[in-house]
Amino acid sequence: MSTPSDHRAAPVLFNGGVRLREWIEAGGSPARHTPLAGFRLRWSGFWFERHAAIIQRKCAQIDLPANPVFVLGLWRTGSTVLHGLLAEATPWTTPRTWQCFRPADFLLAPPPRERQVRRLTDEGYIWTFSPQEDEFAALLLGEPSLYRAFIDPRRMEEAIGLLEQWRHGLKPTVEPLSERWETFLKAVIAYAPGRLLLKSPNHTFRLPWLADRFPDAQFIWVTRPVPDVFASNRRMWTAMIERYGLWHHETAALEAFLRAAIRNHDELLDWARGALSERIHIVPFQEVIHDGANLVSKLLSRLGTQLSALGADPSRKSPTA
Known about the structure:
4-stranded parallel sheet; 13 helices
């Protein structure tokens, strides 16, 4: 078993709503001590839900656009870089870091000061206003996110079930995301109206449902050779679990999860090439990293969008990873 050493700092808590807290508590007593964890989760959850109810009322009359652009692919394929390049080159509306980590109340207070932190997985940085995965908002809102495995890696089997959800087709028994996630997107639009640009590797495994929910959506899919993806993800998931995990993880379970993710990703891509051929745009990792500007120009041409000359905007940071 891979376990953090005794001197490692206590894990960082994801302070979300009641649904996330209840899911965490269902795992029993944490193996890694975090001072006052239960009290802190309950206190933050109480205010989270109060604010979420206010936001739901404020955004009730907002309609989500039918034509978002989704950036898909496995983790560690360069999707963060491409997301940043697209956000910088277009007027599209994309969730920002501070919004994704305050999904219940960011409309109720002014934006925070600009800050930056080093990413756990590479040499890049994350800024307060940099483009961010809406998956973190979904996690905090209590949606069934694969990122729950960062918190309780013992439940990897549950995560593998989420990888398989796309096989249920366009009429899933349980919808992969709820109205709470959609309310967050409405709040993002209320803050900055425009066509939505969304990036989450986890959305890859929700693709049939997303394609049906947003009939005019387009999907940009980043691919990378399997050996590189596996090695990079093993490092990434281990680092995230060591930072946020309330329990230790088994290396074998993590590797089984990653193999299942790669298998489902490949089968999904084959399905999408046939079922969504006019809506899928596949790009390789190397092109994202080494020829990003030209790639963005080509993608926007395919999407019928021209490059926009944006002025200096502190909320639009060039990607570094």
